[in-house]
Amino acid sequence: MMMMMMAKKVQRRHKVCVLYKKSIQNTMWLIKIN
């Protein structure tokens, strides 16, 4: 039970991290265009 909860927390954190990285890449890309 605890392992499942931990896995879900890690998964959610990973998704947030990926979205954060994507947003940084997008902003860098926009800066390069401008």
In short:
Helices cover 94% and strands 0% of the residues. It contains one helix and no strands. It has one helix at residues 2-33.
Description:
- With 34 residues, the chain is mainly alpha-helical.
- The protein has one helix spanning 2-33.
- The protein is rod-shaped.
- The mean pLDDT is 85.
Beginning-to-end CA distance, first to last residue: 50 Å
Count of helices? 1
Q: What are the secondary-structure elements, in order, as H or E?
A: H
SSE class: mainly alpha
Secondary structure: number of strands: 0
Mean of all residue-level pLDDT scores? 85
* Largest beta-sheet characterization: none
**Gyration radius, rounded:** 15 Å
Low-confidence stretches: none
Report the helical percentage.
over 70%
Global geometry: rod-shaped
- Beta strand %: under 5%
Strands, helices and their partners?
Blueprint: H1 2-33
Q: Which features would summarize this protein structure in a list?
A:
0% strand; 34 residues; rod-shaped; mainly alpha
